[in-house]
Amino acid sequence: MARPYNFYAGPAAIPLPALQAVQSELLDYNGSGLSIMEVSHRGKDYDHVHEETIALVKELMGLDDRFHVLLLHGGASTQFAMVPMNFLPADGSADYILTGEWSKKALKEAKGLGKPRVAATTELEGGVFRAIPKQDQLDLDANAAYCHFTTNNTIFGTQFNTMPQTGDVPLVADMSSDILSRQIDPSPFGLIYAGAQKNLGPSGLALVVIRDDMVGKCKAGVPTMFSYKTHVDKNSLFNTPPCLAIYVMNKVLHWLKGEGGVDAIEKVNAEKAAIIYGAIDGSGGYYRNTIAPEDRSKMNIVFNLPSEELEKKFVKEGEAAGFIGIKGHRSVGGIRISAYNAAPLQAAKDVAVFMKEFCAKNG
Ligand code: PMP
Q1: Beta-carbon neighbour count of residue 94 at 10 Å?
Q2: Catalytic site includes residue 255
Q3: pLDDT at residue 220 tops 80
Q4: Which of 116, 202, 217, 336 is disulfide-compatible with 110, CB 3.0–4.6 A?
Q5: CA 109–ligand 1 middle distance (angstroms)
Q6: Is the pLDDT of residue 128 over 90?
């Protein structure tokens, strides 16, 4: 069966070898005669998957012993609330950098729980975002409990290519759409979270990385399931974890390690993005992306054609040619090519050829 190139923004492509590994073990995990989703989360088979997944995250992200890796329910959106529930003091503040829809959603949750500040916003009229604020545009509070930002803006196609500098204020980042796609220095991050459905595996699961000093700052009185301390103390086994999603993530991480890890995939991601942006910039204005090169996302590449009719035609013909999931987010329209880790280099090359041919025929 021929598989199309999957450019969905999330849930997104899972590497074929990971899917095949799941398939081959589905009816009989490790000689048990049972699938991994039918066995106790306290048994030896699942325990191995759980521990190995945590160890792979630590290895691939280059995390030292200061960091705890948590595997939680509720996707990234639950983290929008858990962060302020645990860290926003009743009499204090936290900074939020707004660069898109998802950071606005995170701020909304914090507003319901305390008094966050907006340290910067790049919102334009009509709720559109096209840029990442520069360091000197950040109005930072040295007493903030944390500074929250979204490393990659899935809808608007922008990405922090250098991280904000906040001194002693811990960074808290939503890395849902670029986790493990590039090397980062984890040191300034008090907490990192990511919904799994782009670079890690199936939706519903959230990866959380929390630094030890932040565990000590978790507020008392937070409901048990929403306290990071619970999950650190119980190694993400306070209740039944999303075992199947974690198991699939384990296979995705094995695949990434086999590809050479984050260092290697970062190079491929840069090459893919260069090819697709090259097709946009080389089209003589037929394809338009108005984001400054230093703010462009390597994960979600957004652009417009001269008219909505042509965009519809592009999506229709693209899908017929085997490029799935290229329609822009419903709130902004246009085209979005999401080229996460699992999208192969050849996919970028082939879609760039398709773009050139489409432009030649319809330009
Ligand atoms: N943050 C970002 C950057 C996202 O792209 C998304 C989903 N597309 C979310 C948060 C929300 O994730 P979830 O659906 O897992 O809650």
Answers
A1: 27
A2: no
A3: yes
A4: 116
A5: 14
A6: yes
Residue 288 carries which DSSP code?
Answer: B
Q: Which atom of ligand 1 is nearest to the CA of 100?
A: 3
Residues 100, 174: Cα–Cα separation, whole Å:
12
**3-state DSSP assignment of residue 324:** strand
Which two three-digit tokens encode residue 163? 């991280």
**Nearest Cα to 259, choosing from 299, 177, 300, 199?**
199
Three-class DSSP category at 83:
helix
Q: What is the per-residue DSSP string for 156-178?
A: TTEE-SSPPP-TTSPEEEE-TTT
Q: Could you tell which of 176, 199, 338 is best to mutate to test the pocket of ligand 1, judged by most ligand atoms within 8 Å of the CB? A: 176
Active site residue 28: no
Ligand 1 atom nearest to 175, measured from its CA: 3
217 is an active site residue? no
Tell which phi-psi region holds residue 211, choosing left (phi > 0), alpha (psi between -120 and 50) or beta. Answer: beta
User: Ligand 1: which atom is nearest the Cα of residue 9?
Assistant: 8
Q: Report the percent of the chain where pLDDT is more than 90.
A: 98
d(CA 244, CA 34): 13
Q: Which of 45, 95, 174, 295 is catalytic?
A: 174
Residue 48 has pLDDT above 80, yes or no: yes
Pocket of ligand 1 (CB under 6 A): 10, 75-77, 102, 150, 154, 174, 176-177, 195, 203
Rounded to whole angstroms, the Cα distance separating 273 from 338 reads 10
